[in-house]
Specification:
Structural class: alpha+beta
Distance between the termini: 32 Å
Number of helices: 4
Number of domains: 2
Length: 174
């Protein structure tokens, strides 16, 4: 019994699409949000501009500024996930463990802006690590491989009718 490759490609394409529908939808939506994170304050707070171009205040002043924002729930260094120093902007972004961002002026030590930062959560959803570290390799990586296969089967299914029509036209002329 010969395999009908047209039918096999269509079935593979259909089942592959069904298999990765949910993880791929999540990757698409979160990817779009991450593409726009600098334009949408809900995703990531816009960066303020501090005074000066070289840090004047030290880490103690930056920690004190972060502690002054109750929503950040910073009582010490253990509550700080990371600090993003941007000397060119005169800014230090303190990211608390609860995802609250406090932007501190590196010239004065004053709080310039504070807001909840969702971009890290969205990134963890995007790569699957939010669910479990192994979800990245056991769900999202295979979904990416299947999507690559969908691209090839989709290209084949797109080109196939064009090739058949050309062959039929050549047959009529000859």
């Amino acid at each position: 019994m010969a395999i009908n490759w047209r039918v096999a490609w269509r079935k593979a394409h259909r089942w592959g699409a069904a298999l990765v529908a949910v993880p791929f939808l999540l990757v698409i939506v979160t990817g779009l949000l991450l593409q726009l994170k600098k334009e949408i304050a809900w995703v990531q707070p816009p960066a303020a501009k501090g005074t000066g171009s070289a840090p004047v205040v030290g880490l103690d002043a930056i920690l004190a500024a972060a502690k002054s924002v109750p929503e950040a729930e910073v009582t010490g260094w253990a509550d700080v996930d990371r600090i993003d120093l941007q000397p060119g902007r005169g800014l230090a972004k303190v990211l608390a463990k609860n995802r609250w961002e406090v932007q501190v002026d590196l010239g004065t030590g004053a709080v310039l802006r504070s807001a909840y930062r969702r971009s890290d959560l969205i990134e963890a959803l995007h790569d699957g690590s939010w669910f479990h570290d192994r979800a990245k390799l056991w769900v999202f990586l295979p979904a990416g491989v299947v999507v690559l296969g969908l691209w090839f089967t989709g290209a084949y299914l797109f080109i196939l009718p064009i090739a058949v029509r050309r062959r039929q036209r050549r047959g009529m002329k000859g």
